[in-house]
């Protein structure tokens, strides 16, 4: 009978040694905060399924952006809820669209905050799909033209980076070319590369008022069981010029994040989506988990899986705790 020579517990004995050997650190630098902007004045509508998150009119969004910047979070990603929706999502690429106006005002007020825009059609189409409809499905190539127009109009309005989330084939190359031809060769593209047809987007669709009015998104977003296919998606986006690749959602797809990071060594983002946020909030409100601790553990897991950047509704709350 002998006792162990190697004792793993020696390096867990107290906080000092645990800090010294810690392998993963999260910081406000890692976060991108999603913001929903809508027309109007003085509007701050809390989203029922996302406690503490709001639909904001531009003036209110400016305040939230200032707060975000002051907390040390370097970037926000803007989603627009337009005044009018139509079949081709005209407000997505209108010079005075909601996101375009928000970009100008936020840039003006908080010039050092990095402004990313979500480039997609679903918030702007009356049918709620991520592109134009032909034969009851989203038509790929006609949608590319609209996405390129949208990305370009965001760049013209002051976006620092565009992030296409539509999952059309070839959109990264198409948008890259459109930006380059118009003098925006310095604007990076963050591709929602491996975006799965997930049920975790439910609360977002309330927030953005963008549920599909018929069918679902399974003919363009990825089938959840697939992992090799995710690598092919990422590889294509890199070939087409993506500067950052993204996996979305994050938690049910941590394995995909790790494979993408190991395979491509690209700056890799993960989207900790609305349903992931809502579940933690709901459990915390019921007193079933410690919300703050579960939040930090969750964000750490996403970073540990290989994400360099995390899009998260927890950005402000987590930054506040990490700054303490
Ligand atoms: C738009 C878009 C969606 C999300 C980000 N961009 C919704 C969707 O694809 O239905 C989801 C984000 C979240 O759930 O937090 N295509
Ligand atoms: Zn969409």
Which keywords apply here?
TIM Barrel, 324 residues, single chain, 11 helices, 18% strand, two-stranded antiparallel ribbon, ten-stranded mixed beta sheet, alpha/beta, binds ligand PBG, binds zinc ion
Describe the structure.
The protein has 324 residues and is of the alpha/beta class. It is 38% helix and 18% strand. The protein has a single domain (24-323), classed as Alpha-Beta Barrel (TIM Barrel). It is built from 11 helices and 12 strands. Strands 1, 2, 3, 4, 5, 8, 9, 10, 11 and 12 form a 10-stranded mixed β-sheet that branches. Strands 6-7 form a two-stranded antiparallel ribbon. Helix 2 (58-70) packs across helix 3 and helix 3 packs parallel to helix 4 (140-157). The structure holds ligand PBG and zinc ion. Ligand PBG binds at residues 118, 120, 122, 130, 165, 201, 204-205, 273-274.
């Amino acid at each position: 009978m002998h006792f162990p020579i190697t004792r793993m517990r020696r390096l867990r004995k107290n906080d000092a040694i645990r800090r010294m050997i810690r392998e993963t650190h999260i910081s406000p630098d890692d976060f991108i905060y999603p913001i929903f902007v809508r027309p109007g004045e003085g509007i701050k509508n809390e989203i029922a399924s996302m406690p503490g998150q709001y639909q904001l009119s531009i003036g209110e969004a400016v305040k939230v952006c200032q707060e975000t910047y002051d907390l040390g979070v370097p970037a926000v990603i803007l989603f627009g809820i337009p005044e009018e929706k139509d079949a081709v999502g005209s407000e997505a690429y209108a010079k005075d669209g909601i996101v375009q106006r928000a970009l100008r005002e936020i840039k003006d007020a908080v010039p050092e905050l990095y402004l990313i825009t979500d480039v997609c059609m679903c918030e702007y189409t009356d049918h709620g799909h991520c592109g134009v409809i032909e034969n009851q499905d989203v038509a790929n190539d006609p949608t590319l033209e609209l996405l390129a127009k949208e990305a370009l109009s965001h760049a013209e309005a002051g976006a620092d980076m565009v992030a296409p989330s539509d999952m059309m084939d070839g959109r990264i190359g198409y948008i890259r070319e459109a930006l380059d031809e118009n003098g925006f060769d310095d604007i990076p593209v963050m591709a929602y590369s491996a975006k799965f047809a997930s049920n975790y987007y439910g609360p977002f669709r309330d927030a953005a008022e963008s549920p599909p009015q018929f069918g679902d998104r399974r003919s363009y977003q990825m089938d959840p069981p697939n992992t090799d296919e995710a690598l092919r998606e990422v590889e294509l986006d890199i070939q087409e010029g993506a500067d950052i690749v993204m996996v979305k959602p994050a938690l049910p797809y941590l394995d995909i994040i790790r494979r993408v990071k190991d395979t491509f060594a690209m700056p890799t983002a993960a989207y900790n989506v609305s349903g992931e946020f809502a579940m933690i909030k709901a459990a915390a409100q019921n007193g079933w988990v410690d919300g703050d601790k579960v939040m930090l553990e969750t964000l750490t897991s996403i970073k540990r899986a290989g994400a360099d950047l995390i899009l998260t509704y927890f950005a402000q709350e987590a930054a506040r705790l990490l700054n303490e």
